[in-house]
Amino acid sequence: MKRNRKTATVLSAMLLFVGFAASWVVFTFLPISPERLTLTAGCVVLGIILSVVLYAVITTLPDKRWPRITIVSLFVLFISIPLVSAAAQRITYSRFGFTVYGATPIPVLDITVNQHGVLWFRPKTHQITRAELDALITPGVDVVVVGIGWDSIAQLTDDAKLLGDSIDLRVLPTPEAFALYNDLKAEGRNVVLLAHSTC
Length: 199
What we know:
Blueprint: H1 2-29, H2 34-60, H3 65-88, E1 91-95, E2 98-101, E3 104-107, E4 110-113, E5 119-122, E6 127-128, H4 130-136, E7 143-147, E8 155-156, H5 158-161, E9 168-172, H6 174-186, E10 191-195
Parallel strand pairs: 6-8, 7-9, 7-10
Antiparallel strand pairs: 1-2, 2-3, 4-5, 4-10
Helix pairs in contact: 1-2, 1-3
Keywords: Membrane, Transmembrane, Transmembrane helix
InterPro entries: MTH938-like_sf, NDUFAF3/AAMDC
Transmembrane segments: 37-57, 69-88
C-alpha cells in the first residue's frame, strides 16, 4: 500500500499541474471572450477532480507492480499526446472530416492554430468572419492561412476579405492550406491557421 500511495501522490500532483498548465494556456492564448474565464476555471476544477479520482483509484489497487506500471504508462501516454502536438506544430495527417495535429486526432471539428502552435476549435459554419481572423492575428504574425474546405464550400465574409489588404492572407482549399501551413512553419515563419475540415 505504501508504494501505491507514493505513486498516487506523484501522479495526482502531475495531473493537478497539467490542469493548472492547461488553464494557463487557455487564459493566455485564447482570444478575449466570455468563454475564456469559464474554460480557465473548468481546466483547474477538472484537474483537481481528476487528480483526486486518480489518487483514489491507485490507492485501492493491490500492492503489486503491474497495476502501477499500467497506470503510469497510461498516464504518460495521456499527457504526452498534447505535448507532442504542441511541440510538432504541424498537420501530420488529414482527410475529409478528420485532421491530426501533431499527435492529436480531431474528427469533424474545424480548427484554428495560433502563432504559438496552440490548437483550438471554431464554430462549424461555412462563413469565416473577420472577428475569427482578428482573434488569431497577434503582433508578429506574417501569414494567415485559411482552409475553406475540401470542396471549397466555406467562404470569407466581405469584411474578412479586406484583411488581405493589411496582412498576407492565403485562402485555399483545406488540403492545400494544410500543406502551405506545414511549409511555412518549416521555414520558420509566424503563421496562423484557420481550417474548415469538411465540405
